[in-house]
TrEMBL record:
The organism's place on the tree of life at top rank: Bacteria
Domain Mop: 64-129
Coiled coil: none
InterPro entries listed in its UniProt record: HTH_17, Mop_domain, SinI_DNA-bd, Transp-assoc_OB_typ1
Name under which the protein is recorded: TOBE domain-containing protein
Keywords, in A-Z order: Molybdenum
Keyword Manganese: no
Length: 136
């Protein structure tokens, strides 16, 4: 399993290094020395904690949908002309941008600070890793 240094773990979780150290002290995470002698946590264990710690607000629409990627957030930006608009949402730590008609922005009543849900249904999702190899 990959070992993630404390400072990197904190960055992935959006918390301070001290918080990760407290979690290793109280048993939430298990710290071990890496090959360089620095404290690190197991990547899989960190992923489980990250998943358990992530909580977005409930979707106010509460509608049934086949799309599983739903991000509830606040509208932080709207750039519109006569025909098209760009709407930005801040959904927890994620910034989601949608392009739609200006008419849709008006009909949805979108304005800065309003609550909205970004629904992502894509046929292609690209995953990248720092040490990944390109496959041609």
């Amino acid at each position: 399993m990959p070992q993630i240094r404390i400072s990197e773990a904190a960055r992935f979780l959006g918390v301070s290094d001290d918080t990760v150290r407290r979690w290793t002290e109280n048993g939430t995470l298990t710290a071990r020395k890496d090959a360089a002698g620095r404290l690190a946590v197991d990547g899989l264990e960190l992923a489980k904690v990250a998943r358990d710690q992530s909580h977005l607000p409930d979707d106010p629409a509460r509608t049934g949908s086949s799309a599983r990627n739903r991000f509830v957030g606040l509208v932080t930006g709207i750039t519109a002309d006569k025909v098209m608009a760009q709407v930005e949402l801040q959904c927890g730590p994620f910034r989601v941008v949608s392009l739609m008609s200006s008419e849709a922005v008006r009909e949805l009543g979108l304005e800065l600070g309003s609550v909205a849900t970004a629904v992502v249904k894509a046929t292609t999702v690209i995953i990248e890793t720092p040490q990944g190899k390109s496959i041609v």
